[in-house]
Amino acid sequence: MRNRNDKRKRKKIAGQVLNEEDITVVDTDVVKRSVVATGIGNAMEWFDFGIYAYLATTIGAVFFPDFSGPTQLVFSFATFAVAFLVRPLGGIFFGMLGDKLGRKRILAITLIMMALATLSIGFIPGYGSIGIMAPILLLVARLVQGFSTGGEYSGAMTFLAESSPDKRRSFLTSGLEVGTLCGYIFGSGTVTLLTYILGQDTMLAWGWRIPFFIAAPIGLIGLYFRTKLEETPAFKKKMDAESSNHISMKDIIVNHKAPLLKGLIIVFFYNVIYYTVLTYMPSHLNSVLGYSQTTGLLIILVVMCIQLPIVLLMGFLGDRFGKNRIILGGLIGMLLLAIPSYMLIGSGTTVWIFTGIMILALLFTTFQGTLPSLLPSLFFTEVRYSGLSITYNISVSLFGGTAPLLVSWLISWTGSQFIPAYYIMFASLVGVVVMTVFVKETSGKPLRGSPPAVADKSEIPDVLEENDDGLWWNEEKGKFNMEVATKDELYMDMDDDGLTIDHGDNGKRTDTENNDEP
């Protein structure tokens, strides 16, 4: 009887022991505050995206008056796109700091930077007042926005995934994408309302500044919530268990190639479909199919409003039936329905246009509700923030921001209005292969490198029973440690210059000459 009780109290895991005390009991009220705090930051990022996209023509006239028509719009969007170039740099910088100093501190810093950069755009005088300095200052503000954004979303995903109980992680992290939709809806809706009230002339004179000023109170509200957050349980346990040795960028790239590549491809299909379906769609309706710009923008806004509750539903279903199943269902749906949806979009009837876009948007919610919990699960705790920041931001910069440009260029080259559908199908096919072959189902399980997290103490006995043979990631961690140790031994014992590399304290490298006695 005593042996059975001991078995329930602790489970042997490759030299480590899992005790009841190791299992994190998550305070649901704290998690709810975390969802709000991280969601506000994500909403502000997409609030900026929405207002800039809807004000592109006005910003072009204010800051690039020497150009006109399409050329002016190109310069306006080029200033917007430059933020994507520095996102990977911001992701690397803040990701490394987040794994060293903690998630909470970095999320506060990125939010402040985003709010100040967005607010500053509203104060920049136009080209008519200060000449060439006006677009230069706009460019600097956009660079700061892009740099801070590089650490924002990946940090928010990491924070929320590590703060959530294992069996509710998809549902709770789906709140990030609700923040995305709310931010874009609020931003674009604000511009639309102001334009209706003030008129185009007043918007051009000074009204365009108002949406950027709104960033200040949003940032203050978000900062208030983030200062009330606690550091994630997974990061605190990691800091308690390990020394202060910091993992370098080289270590992450060399030793964590597999999760980096998986994440890169997952973010590829996610962003290609997102930017093609929701971001590029108004331009496609206007430029390719000849509908009014207002029609396209209003349809997208209505579609996004309908998506809000469905994203949460997909997160709930991901916890119940498995994230991978939900994602694969969405990918297969895209493969089968992309062309029929674009046939409806090109029908010329508003109802069928809306139906076609809605089909694609509903399929896309399968990714929005599940990927914020899937992506953090690819990495072990000690490299989660930095690894996710690297893979997410590089993929966004390469494939997300370029999707509208590539699609529009292919349409002009081929003359086919189904190019967006073909690109969506290609991205979905890649996604099906990766999700089926290379991504392990982790729904309801602890994050890699972390002990279990539960919402109530009554779940602890069941968790201990489930982990009778060891945590699911333990064998993977053991193999990883052996591979790293083997690489280190080969590196330490070989030297091209005839030097013997001895093992110093803590694995540090010390060089001694291997000279024979005379």
UniProtKB/TrEMBL annotation:
Record-annotated membrane-spanning stretches: 49-67, 73-94, 106-124, 130-150, 171-198, 210-229, 259-277, 297-317, 326-345, 351-371, 392-413, 419-439
Record region (Disordered): 496-518
Pfam families linked to this entry: MFS_1 (PF07690)
Major location category of this protein: membrane
InterPro entries reported for this sequence: H+-coupled_symporters (IPR051084), MFS (IPR011701), MFS_dom (IPR020846), MFS_trans_sf (IPR036259), Sugar_transporter_CS (IPR005829)
PROSITE patterns per the UniProt record, alphabetical: MFS, SUGAR_TRANSPORT_2
Protein name: Putative proline/betaine transporter
Species whose genome carries this gene: Virgibacillus oceani
